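ingest -> validate -> predict -> emit
validate: passed (alphabet ok, no gaps, 436 aa)
predict: started
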Amino acid sequence: MPSLQASIAAPPAAIDGTTPDLRARFATVRARTRALAAPLSAEDAQLQCMADASPAKWHLAHTTWFFARFVLGRLGEPPIPAGWDYLFNSYYVGAGERHPRASRGLVSRPTLAEVLAWRDAVDDRVLALLDAGGLDAGARDVLLLGTHHEQQHQELLLTDIKHAFWSNPLAPAYHPPDADASVPGAPAAAEPGLRWLARDETLTELGAAPWPGGAFAFDNETPRHRALVPAHALASRAATNAEFAAFVDDAGYATPTLWLSDGWDLAAREGWQRPLYWHADGVREFTLAGWRERDPHAPACHLSHYEADAFARWAGARLPTEAEWELAAAGRPVEGDFADGGVFQPRAQAAAGDGPHGLFGGTWEWTSSAYAPYPGFRPLPGTLGEYNGKFMSGQLVLRGGSCATPRDHARASYRNFFAPSARWQFSGVRLARDRA
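emit:
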């Protein structure tokens, strides 16, 4: 039987929906989700450890519901079993009533086997239509959107099961590290020293061109627009575990002047004393391969925005704006630790040239920017317009991708977003400073 790493390492297909590779991309993405779920038992796939997380079975079903509802549904009655439309809709109000998010773990029926059989049936129907030329341009565009939607859920499947296994007193491992893969937590090459990369004030273009019509981008990345970016300096790399441990040891979690008010109240109420998966012994952290010794040189991760912001203030710095981050990332190769490698834990990265490194993969990087519309933003028409735009309130932007993100899903213009309290994602911090 192939290893988990081998099962998810198929080369990515092209991301431009106008190419004949759309079929290959659809098949590859759907197969990867199945491979990511393969190590889970039916009991594992049922777990919902908190309201923000979802069971793996729900992720498998919801991504199938998306194609059934929005692709096959364009051709007539979508192939959705009775009652499942209600169970596996997420937040698309225009598509009908929805089961409460916090209660997804209570849905023991349909079974995992029934959900997987439904996936197969929907996949077969979509592939047959693609082979027969039965999908018009609009349906093909939605199909491409659906593959990127599913890749978001691949990452959520991993982050959600990590939290569920960490919540289990037995601390089970999602998968043992393969012999040919780096073991999370094993000693790594020392992280290069932090350098400050200065940039003068500049007028630049940010964001992506509207899609469809070119390379894929979510609507919240559009339109491409001009922005004035003040003079600043950006850290050459993300903050490390060792650097964040110094913040912890210096009573960072007990110093109210470092924290935003909401963050201080939340940390006190929930008893935060260290990042989410750090052990109280000060040595280990929980990974998808179980408890492992923490690598001091690896990027610190599973930080809320509140923790990242407090750390930046402690370090005499600040979080970058998303404009500063994108300006640094534009034109750079999308390289780093991604889900395709099957390690699922950030590792120290060697410096590459004089510019910033580790911008992609490893951890998402918090910015100080509110998740808000770009000038001239227009959501997708119809129910699919609910995908991004309606969440532009009370959220902060993260950039770059993580070790749980598929490589071909990452790009410089990608705008991830979460509430500032979120800790269970692979989220880290890169520092920035003002310049006169």
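The chain is about 30% helix and 10% strand.
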